[in-house]
Amino acid sequence: MTYPAGRTLSELEHNLAAIQQRIDTACRRASRDPSEVRLLPVSKTVDEARLRLAYRAGCREFGENKVQEAQRKAEALADLTDLRWSVIGHLQTNKAKLVARFASEFQALDSLRVAEALERRLEIEDRALDVLVQVNTSNETSKFGLAPEDVAAFIRQLPAFSRLRVKGLMTLAIFSDDPTRVRPCFVRLRQLRDQLREQLPDGTSMDTLSMGMSGDFELAIEEGATVVRVGQAIFGPRPLPDSYYWPDADQDNG
Ligand SMILES: *Cc1c(COP(=O)(O)O)cnc(C)c1O
């Protein structure tokens, strides 16, 4: 996979327009309305100056995998008051207080301990947070996320956390260039969402399916994604290997 550079305002505008066009085309193929699909630009490793260009190019939210990096940027860009931050990577309980302070959304909820820590900190900040439950749909590539069979029982516990607004599910597909291995991960998440919808606790909704990244977002849209998390196809190739973010990524590649 090669990605275009995304350093200047015009490169960023160009990349964003190209991705929106690919989203539209994938939606048309799947008889879906493009307005159902939210593009979440993923800005990890991208510096503040380039984020300001992306803002000028129209971005009003950014996704970050690591909490401290996200918080640093949120502070540096605090003058852009309509900018929202989504934390999309695994969270340790001791970082919950940072998320509670600045994030609008947390996409990687996978334990009650983290839910408890977030709830406590959100109360202190008097804030609420949109959350997605992370599901491991690939069995092997990621040690993060709940096993699909554990999600229903987990979701039944979440109404106890009044400051967490449960919106749906998130997954990372297997790291592979082979669509016949990637697509089943997306299908699994959608089917799980459809099952869960029939037995949801009050105050929980399951509309959001966050799945698909630079290399596979069109497949994900065909299978029902409502959020695609796209980094490199907007900002250009990343210097850090994926194994920095997902402990087992590299050996499963290919
Ligand atoms: C980095 C990241 C993405 C985006 O990956 P790209 O290859 O840059 O599109 C999506 N989801 C998560 C959880 C990430 O950490």
Automatic annotation (TrEMBL):
Instruction: List the cofactors.
Output: pyridoxal 5'-phosphate
Q: Which domain of life is it from?
A: Bacteria
Q: Which InterPro entries match?
A: Ala_racemase_N, PLP-binding_barrel, PyrdxlP_homeostasis
Q: Which positions bear N6-(pyridoxal phosphate)lysine?
A: 44
Q: Which UniProt keywords apply?
A: Pyridoxal phosphate
| Stored SUPFAM superfamilies | PLP-binding barrel
Residues of the Alanine racemase N-terminal domain = 15-239
**UniProt GO molecular function:** pyridoxal phosphate binding
HAMAP family named in the record: PLP_homeostasis
Q: Which NCBIfam families match?
A: YggS family pyridoxal phosphate-dependent enzyme
The job of this chain, per UniProt, is described as: Pyridoxal 5'-phosphate (PLP)-binding protein, which is involved in PLP homeostasis.
Q: Which family does it belong to?
A: Belongs to the pyridoxal phosphate-binding protein YggS/PROSC family.
The protein's name in its UniProt record: Pyridoxal phosphate homeostasis protein
Organism this protein belongs to:
Pistricoccus aurantiacus
